[in-house]
Design brief:
By secondary structure, the chain is of the alpha/beta class. Helix content is about 35%, strand content about 10%. The strands form 2 sheets. It has an 8-stranded mixed beta sheet, sandwiched between helices. The protein is globular, with a radius of gyration of 25 Å. The two termini are about 45 Å apart. About 15% of the residues have low confidence. InterPro entries: AB_hydrolase_fold, AB_hydrolase_lipase. Keywords: Membrane, Transmembrane, Transmembrane helix.
């Protein structure tokens, strides 16, 4: 979707060569640099645009010799190397952040714009080929998942015949039954209210968040609907990143305490970050709720934090007394950009490095602007934690740490678990970048998955989604509320770039190096050094500051790790942080929940006890003193 910028009254519009590849694009210019607009010369405007996010080149691969014909197609889409293009004059450069190079983030392709007829034909050819090939790949995965599902059904049927119900063997079977009965009672009570149009006398008197929706759950991908079922509500903001993407930001609130802003005040405010904030004095001394931003994992949106009724982490923190905001990464819900359409391959040339440096930065900036605070608490799951760990590193965007009071990482995705060695992941790792782009395209990664989610019946999709994702990532629903499982998968999958999936699973990214910030060789050297070094103090003395990932501006870390998580290895991260290799990192809380798998930190029935209450306390204990003095004291921390 193309979003037209709407500059504020205090901004001027200038035409510059955009950092995201559009030769002439109106951007909001900062107040500090309001100079007369300069137009690029006709010669410069006619040249191919420069994508200034990274150096431009195709990533070399050992198997390139076998892929000459494919490379001839995919390489034809790439523009000239950046080194061959003239640099922008200082007066024409956009005053925004530029991504630094990093060995773990190889250069991405930059596509010629406007494309020639030959380029357009190549785009269409790759899209057609990738549609067929990725569909075949998806069918193989689905058939494998269904075969496994049929086998499990046969095993369960055998147990039923032996009068040994698999349901009764579930970890929280009694609690599941109790919650199912509670939902039925609440549904009948809601129906009675609607019929009589009066408050039910059986409703608890101390409920300060009476439900605003009820009845039978239709199973929808609507965060606001599930918020209203627990007496809360959600307003939607649009946020612009420095590279032009439009993000969706959800604000969870209690309608008895807060009045949502008009839609005109929830639109994008422009690309500049941390340029202004609302004055807390305008709140007339009333205590405010401390802001907390939650970020989701790969192939999800932040609705994953809202799938468990009152036991959802987002709703729990909101009712505890925090100001809860749910951030969504670029393109996930709906691809939106200020100058590009979703059919443009330039719009999909990004990885988690961009999501960390640009998306999280823009979301934090907007939350701080709206709340008037200097810092916020950040909670991130899986990929959300990975992009944050990358962004905070000292060679990426360490100044972001000045805006975060504590970083709570749930199932932190820093080191790979054993799951990356499964056969289908090995296949994706073995193929060259050229073949990967031919199979999976140069746009969104298998967008047909999102189409299937939208068109299939919600409950049928929920069951199919669990079967497929549990097969791929070896999850189980043993600790989840079975009655809500279909709802949990309504918030996945979402749109994500093929380049991001290639970074996670391809030949030169995470699955190869098994770490997000160090090469495989560096990780092996670290293990060997730890083996031969006696103590953390000796490691700290022997290692130079250059080996540390984080500098002095890093916020405190709090970690919740699943001991049975096969997708990522949180224990490796704990060993690194505890070995003295990161002298600037203060780990204020760490917990390994032995029986937890990757998604249990979000959806386990005892998540509030194991994770939620501890997160609530850590947020309060790490809150800056001046913020604590003017903030509501959350329930359960005193």
């Amino acid at each position: 979707m193309l979003i037209t910028p709407n500059p504020a009254h205090d901004a001027v519009t200038t035409t510059i060569e955009s950092l995201y590849g559009t030769p002439q694009l109106p951007l909001r210019k900062s107040l500090e640099s309001q100079q007369p607009a300069k137009m690029p010369s006709a010669t410069k405007a006619a040249k191919p645009p420069v994508l200034r996010l990274q150096a431009v080149d195709r990533v070399p691969n050992q198997s390139d010799d076998d892929d000459d014909e494919i490379s001839a197609v995919t390489d034809g889409l790439l523009s000239e190397r950046r080194t061959a293009l003239p640099h922008l004059a200082a007066s024409q450069a956009a005053p925004v952040f530029t991504l630094p190079g990093h060995p773990l983030f190889p250069p991405l392709p930059v596509y010629v714009h406007p494309p020639s007829m030959l380029d357009t034909a190549r785009y269409l050819a790759i899209r057609g080929a990738s549609f067929v090939l990725s569909l075949l790949f998806l069918l193989v995965v689905v058939l494998g998942a269904l075969s496994r599902g049929i086998w499990l059904l046969l095993v369960a049927a055998g147990q039923y015949l032996q009068r040994n119900s698999p349901r009764q063997q579930r970890r929280f079977y009694a609690e599941e039954r109790a919650r199912r009965l509670d939902r039925r009672t609440s549904s009948r009570r809601w129906k009675l209210r609607q019929e009589k149009r009066e408050v039910d006398e059986e409703a608890p008197d101390d409920d300060d968040c009476p439900p605003l929706e009820g009845g039978k759950d239709p199973v929808v991908d609507d965060v606001a609907y599930y918020a209203r079922r627990v007496g809360l509500d959600v307003e939607t903001y649009k946020v612009q990143t420095e590279d032009g993407f439009i993000l969706t930001l959800w604000h969870v609130y209690n309608p008895h305490e807060y009045t949502p802003l008009p839609a005109s005040e929830r639109k994008p405010r422009g690309p500049h970050v941390f340029s202004a904030k609302k004055d807390l004095e305008s709140f007339n001394g009333v205590r405010r709720k401390y802001p907390v931003l939650l970020m989701h994992g790969l192939l999800q949106n932040s609705g994953a934090y809202c799938a468990n009724d009152d036991d959802s982490l987002a709703f729990f923190l909101c009712k505890s007394g925090y100001d809860v905001w749910l951030g969504n990464n670029r393109c996930g819900l709906e691809p939106e950009h200020t100058s590009m359409l979703d059919s443009d391959p330039r719009m999909w040339s990004w990885t988690i490095q961009h999501m960390g440096a640009f998306d999280i930065t823009a979301l934090i900036s907007r939350v701080l602007f709206e709340t008037g605070y200097d810092k916020l608490g950040l909670i991130a799951h899986s990929q959300g934690s990975a992009q944050t760990f990358v962004a905070l590193s000292k060679d990426q965007r360490p100044e972001l740490g000045d805006r975060i009071s504590v970083f709570c990482a749930l199932a932190p995705a820093v080191y790979a678990g054993p799951l990356v060695n499964r056969v289908y992941f090995r296949f994706m790792r073995l193929i060259s970048p050229a073949v990967f782009r031919l199979v999976f395209g140069i746009h969104s990664f298998i967008p047909l998955m999102v189409t299937v989610r939208r068109w299939l019946h919600a409950r049928l999709y929920g069951k199919l989604g669990y079967i497929v994702f549990s097969y791929l990532f070896n999850w189980s629903d043993t600790r989840w509320d079975y009655g809500l499982r279909d709802r949990m998968f309504q918030f996945a999958p979402v749109y994500v770039s093929t380049e991001t999936i290639r970074w996670w699973l391809g030949a030169d990214g995470f699955s190869t190096h098994e770490c997000i910030l160090a090469t495989k060789e560096a990780c092996l050297a670290e293990v060997e050094f730890n083996r031969t070094t006696a103590s953390a103090s000796s490691i700290r003395d022997a290692e130079s500051d250059s080996t540390a990932w984080y500098g002095p501006r890093t916020p405190p870390f709090a970690l919740w790790i699943g001991g049975a998580d096969q997708l990522v290895d949180g224990r490796k991260l704990l060993r690194r942080l505890g070995s003295g290799r990161e002298p600037c990192v203060d780990v204020v809380h760490e917990k390994v929940i032995e029986e937890y798998e990757h998604l249990d930190v979000l959806w386990a029935m005892d998540m509030i006890e194991q994770v939620g209450k501890e997160v609530r306390l850590v947020l309060w204990e790490t809150m800056p003193g001046d913020a604590r003095a003017r903030s509501v004291v959350p329930r359960g921390v005193a």
